[in-house]
Design a protein that fits this description.
By secondary structure, the protein is α+β, with helices and mostly antiparallel strands. The chain is built from 2 helices and 5 strands; from the N terminus they run βββββαα.
Length: 86
């Protein structure tokens, strides 16, 4: 599962040919959440509230890039890195 971004100890990853809805995986320590790219809602797992806020803020800024990477992942193409939250 390729890492597409990393910030504040949060690792953002995306699987190739993963199930719908279009989503990404956010890991923070031993916590993991799956976030829907279109709605920016956590639909599986959990993260600490402050970490969830950082992830949603980042995803809001990069939603179009995330959708492009999702399409690339479905086609098994190389994913593009996305700038971290600063």
């Amino acid at each position: 599962m390729p890492e597409i971004s990393r910030f504040f100890g949060i690792v953002i990853k995306m699987f190739f040919d993963d199930h719908n809805p279009p989503h990404f995986h956010a890991e923070y320590g031993s916590d993991l959440a799956l976030i829907d790219i279109r709605t920016l809602a956590v639909f599986s797992g959990r993260l600490p509230p402050r970490v969830t806020g950082f992830v949603i803020e980042w995803a809001t800024l990069h939603q179009r890039e995330l959708l492009t990477d999702w399409e690339r992942a479905q086609a098994r193409q190389e994913l593009q890195k996305i700038a971290p939250l600063e």
